[in-house]
């Protein structure tokens, strides 16, 4: 939670300083906070427009989370 607040505050400052949209600062910063390599790769593929690869990774991650919480 604290990391997200810091990203929000610093993201706004750097977006104004470098004159870029805030999303260009937020998204790469927040995606790196997502736990798990599989979910990270799914988010990376989704942001690059590789939707089929992102869907495969997302389904795999959801399956792993489901089985992990059921056990």
Automatic annotation (TrEMBL):
<comment type="similarity">
    <text>Belongs to the ThrE exporter (TC 2.A.79) family.</text>
</comment>
<keyword id="KW-0472">Membrane</keyword>
<feature type="domain" description="Threonine/Serine exporter ThrE">
    <location>
        <begin position="2"/>
        <end position="61"/>
    </location>
</feature>
<dbReference type="Pfam" id="PF12821">
    <property type="entry name" value="ThrE_2"/>
</dbReference>
<dbReference type="InterPro" id="IPR024528">
    <property type="entry name" value="ThrE_2"/>
</dbReference>
<feature type="transmembrane region" description="Helical">
    <location>
        <begin position="25"/>
        <end position="43"/>
    </location>
</feature>
<dbReference type="GO" id="GO:0016020">
    <property type="term" value="C:membrane"/>
</dbReference>
<protein>
    <submittedName>
        <fullName>Threonine/serine exporter family protein</fullName>
    </submittedName>
</protein>
<keyword id="KW-0812">Transmembrane</keyword>
<keyword id="KW-1133">Transmembrane helix</keyword>
């Amino acid at each position: 939670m604290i990391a997200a607040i810091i990203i929000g505050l610093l993201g706004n400052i750097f977006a104004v300083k470098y004159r870029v949209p805030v999303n260009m600062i937020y998204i790469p910063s927040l995606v790196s906070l997502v736990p798990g390599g599989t979910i990270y790769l799914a988010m990376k593929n989704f942001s690059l427009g590789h939707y089929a690869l992102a869907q495969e990774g997302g389904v795999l991650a959801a399956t792993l989370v489901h089985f992990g919480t059921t056990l």
